[in-house]
Write a structure and sequence with these properties.
- It contains three helices and seven strands.
- The protein has helices spanning about 25-35, 55-60, 65-70, and strands at about 1-5, 10-15, 40-50, 75-80, 85-90, 90-95, 100-105.
- The protein is globular and about 35 Å long.
């Protein structure tokens, strides 16, 4: 998990989990994103999820999106499934697989 704030109301989260990590752990990490965005009024989020996540990872559909809805009720979230996801890691843009990238934009 990498969590950072890019100043001016933009934060991002990179979710990179193996198949054995339970969804409960994901929920706790999303809580960390909420804490990192404290003082910021989220307006919308973008979520880019690896196409290998979902039923193949959890054995059922909609686990990641359900956790995001529970963590940010009423927040508009748009996104799509990807073959690979790009996000900064230690100041350098990287290509990731089996990840989800959440961008929270607010004031």
């Amino acid at each position: 998990l990498i969590l950072s704030q890019l100043g001016s109301g933009i934060g991002y989260l990179i979710l990179g989990f193996g198949r054995s990590l339970p969804a409960l752990f994901l929920a706790r990490m999303i809580d960390g994103v909420k804490a990192d965005c404290a003082g910021m009024e989220p307006r919308f989020a973008l979520y880019f999820d690896c196409l290998a996540r979902g039923r193949a990872l959890y054995g059922e559909e909609g686990v990641d999106s359900a956790l995001l809805r529970a963590a940010f009720p009423g927040l508009p979230v748009a996104g799509f499934f990807c073959n690979a996801e790009m996000a900064p890691l230690r100041g350098v843009n990287q290509l990731f697989t089996y990840t989800g990238v959440l961008v929270v934009v607010g004031d």
